Amino acid sequence: xxxxxxxxxxxxxxxxxxxxxxxxxxxxxxxxxxxxxxxxxxxxxxxxxxxxxxxxxxxxxxxxxxxxxxxxxxxxxxxxxxxxxxxxxxxxxxxxxxxxxxxxxxxxxxxxxxxxxxxxxxxxxxxxxxxxxxxxxxxxxxxxxxxxxxxxxxxxxxxxxxxxxxxxxxxxxxxxxxxxxxxxxxxxxxxxxxxxxxxxxxxxxxxxxxxxxxxxxxxxxxxxxxxxxxxxxxxxxxxxxxxxxxxxxxxxxxxxxxxxxxxxxxxxxxxxxxxxxxxxxxxxxxxxxxxxxxxxxxxxxxxxxxxxxxxxxxxxxxxxxxxxxxxxxxxxxxxxxxxxxxxxxxxxxxxxxxxxxxxxxxxxx
Length: 365
Fold this sequence. Notes:
With 365 residues, this protein is mostly helical. It is 72% helix and 1% strand. The protein is globular and about 70 Å long. The two termini are 35 Å apart.
């Protein structure tokens, strides 16, 4: 009981520290521009929370999170573009590129703000559920699952590019000016969006932690480590993996939805293969088995991309790939495991003869 209380005290202290940093220190010391960049990074960190659950705990190497991020982003952007246009008017890009005189039938439900908000999470989760049922029931795993999820991201981006009249094509949905009645040109409203994003990130971390430390979290690890034994015990591994995959998709969709008012744009370039890989790289570098590590690693990689791509625009993508390979090859647990690795090196006599703790791997998919 004492250990449990001590652990909970550390958890609450961690959340309190994060709240102080995000809600107190960051708005105080950062300019409006830098705070906007941080809001963008926090959205990518929300995707990393889902990756930590699906990949770090469940062994599902999800290289297609850009699909769910994009579904949530487009669902939000469609509603905001309709609201910006005003009653009875078409969004600006439809007037420029389209030939339609009224909203397409699949745009019309997004005029309702409640439907649009629900769709940002439920639509990605529904797509993930359909894909997961098809994949996991057929026991597709490992590299095959990773390639399939990446192919889905590529197909989605290509489809969006081909729908110039209804999705904006390559440009996507741009120049979003309002957010549920608030002008995004006002710095005060931009700060409000940042606070919403920061609060959503903390809530997702709390949700993921609850799942990880629940009975379901233990079952997810068991499926990752020995799927056949779990099946022998009477559980269906496909259902266990499906829940993690669907929850991670919902988190990515919510991140995409909040990314839209933070940046003012959503386009195929933000949701294809490369962005999907970048989400995974951040989680891998920080530590895919650690919620804090995955979040901090993703924020650090996103910041490095912004800073270094200005100096090395042609070489940054290669550096990202090298970073991913190095992290998996030499530090499988990410930066979050660095302290434990150093401690083991300093005290070899205490760990001699003891088996090394198992690290989550992608083959459990």
